[in-house]
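Regression report. Comparing outputs from two consecutive submissions.

Submission 1:
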Amino acid sequence: MHVELLAPGDNGGDIDSITIANTHSSLDATVSLSIVKLSDASSLNSLETYYLFKSVAIPSATSLFLNNGDMLSFDNSVSGYSMFITVGPSDIVDVSINANGI
């Protein structure tokens, strides 16, 4: 499943931290986090994709905490980038974003 966490113009480009929690009681979740420049927001066609990480297994009942603001900063202006999370179809995760401006 591919879910947009921040759309262009959400003013979330100044992110302090992201927590991704695998809430499943027994199965790992496979997670990717990316910054995407869309050519057409309505069809989600991608011009550019940059992965912060790809296909990382988060064990059950465990959280992944990213707190490097420099790594998490990106152009989230109206003409900028979106942030997407991709998880497997049966994965269950909660995402918390701590950012200036949101």
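Submission 2:
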Amino acid sequence: MECIQIQNYKITTFSTMARILAIDYGSKRVGIAVTDPLQIIASGLTTVHSKDLIAYLEEYLKKETVECIVVGEPKTLQNEASDSARFINPFVTHLTRKFPNIKIARYDERFTTAIAHQTMLMGGLKKKGRANKDTVDMISATIILQDYLSFMGK
């Protein structure tokens, strides 16, 4: 961020602000959410097949500057790793190696699917729309990202 003084007015410009991207990783589908460049608003971006995720991220990172990738960390109610951690942990290791210059953060994703369903219900989405798993995964990623932003004080 840089400031420019013009007479009695101080104008703040934001240069090279980077986004934060969140991933709700599943064995079949991956929900992706992203912030605006000022890291204020979390929005759903897309849902991709898990086998296509790295290629999607490579293309996305060519166009956008990303400071951090937040990956949902599945836990049980006892705060232990859930069964799905067995395929998420290797993915996070691969992600770290593939994009060494981007911070990779893990964030608790408990209840995000239930919250996503409740959000769609409260938003008036019809039953057919609520059954769309792509939408659920994208909203779950958005919830993970919004919670992460709140946790980080953004």
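Expected: both submissions complete independently.
Actual: both completed, but the second showed a warning that disappeared on reload.
Relevant detail on submission 2: The chain has one domain: 18-151.
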